[in-house]
Amino acid sequence: MNNSLIDYVLHLADNSLILAQRNAEWCGHGPILEQDIAITNISLDLLGQSRNFYQHAATLIGNDATEDSLAYLRTEREFKNCLLVEQPNGDWGQTILRQFFFSAYQFLLYEKLQAHKDEQLAAIAAKALKEVTYHMRWSSEWVIRLGDGTTESHERMTKAIDELWRYTGELFMAADYEKKSGIDVSLLKDVWMKKVESVFEEATLSVPEKTFMQNGGKTGVHTEHLGYILTELQYLQRTYPGAEW
Amino acid sequence: MKIHISKYYYGDIPEEKAGGFQDQKSNVDKNSWPLWEVFVRSKQGLDHKHVGSLHATDPVMAIENARDVYTRRQEGVSIWVVESKFITASNPEEAGELYEPAADKIYRHPTFYELPDEVGHM
Prior knowledge:
The complex is a heterodimer of chains A (245) and B (122). With 245 residues, chain A is mainly alpha-helical. Chain A contains ten helices and no strands. In chain A, helix 1 packs antiparallel against helix 2. Chain A has one domain: Ferritin (Up-down Bundle). Chain B has 122 residues and is α+β, with helices and mostly antiparallel strands. Chain B has a single domain, classed as Roll (Ubiquitin-like (UB roll)), CATH 3.10.20. Chain B has helices spanning 59-70, 95-99; strands at residues 35-41, 48-55, 78-83. A three-stranded antiparallel beta sheet of chain B has the order 2-1-3, covered by helices on one side. In chain B, a hairpin with a 6-residue loop joins strand 1 (35-41) and strand 2 (48-55). The chains are: A mainly alpha (245), B alpha+beta (122).
């Protein structure tokens, strides 16, 4: 059994699941009906991805592992998602920016992942790439719209950048399991930065100076937010083990 | 959406309401985005059909909103959007003069021809 591959697949699954859960918090609260539907659509796309990854991980792990046990019955320290996706929604601007940072990263990652030697993983990436392309397009346009919008929307985007920038570095710092079984994420950094710069330029926003980058999520050391997310996400299975409907 | 209805009496109609082309500045409520009509083609070769309307600030957003609202269950392969204000509609009150005269002119339908079987459905 290849442990680093399992960890890697779980990392990919956790990224998608946690961001899906965050975006789903907007359901019924979007700024306008159409955007409420848009953000929850993205949430469902991500949830679909995470299911594919969890199912694959469950097959690799064997025994009694299922997609449900992996999503609902692991503890905070066992989750391997990067810190960016667990950050709070904040206002619409912050949610948009988080989505943009992550979708731009996911796009580059899945492009490479399509050629992974694990065929199942490659197939999941190829399937998801189309929706991720749309997420990137949608979120870039919103970043531009808000950055280059009113004084207030510009200020809010600037604040969101201050809030989230420190979590972008981790995306490109490879954990051990990524080095062994994943894609070399450090190679994606320059292309990602170019994308961010070009969108920010159009949005009249500036890329922050070099700052300290937080990391740890990939190896289970999370910000205080993940615990709350899991509490809500796992409540039902924890309280009524094995519940089905 | 906030709908503002006001009633004017003869002589006191404000100039900007006095007919002619209504431009966007009459849309003063900055919290309400313009309305767009959405047309979706369900399959290559078929027509675009009107499916509904939605709010958006610009054409790009209108297309994306339409994609999310009207094609997420695989309803379409192509989308048209047009701002609702650019659609001129016939007046329901004129339905009598516009459409009823056609009612008793069945000879305008080509139903009196014998179609050869080979033609199939026309």
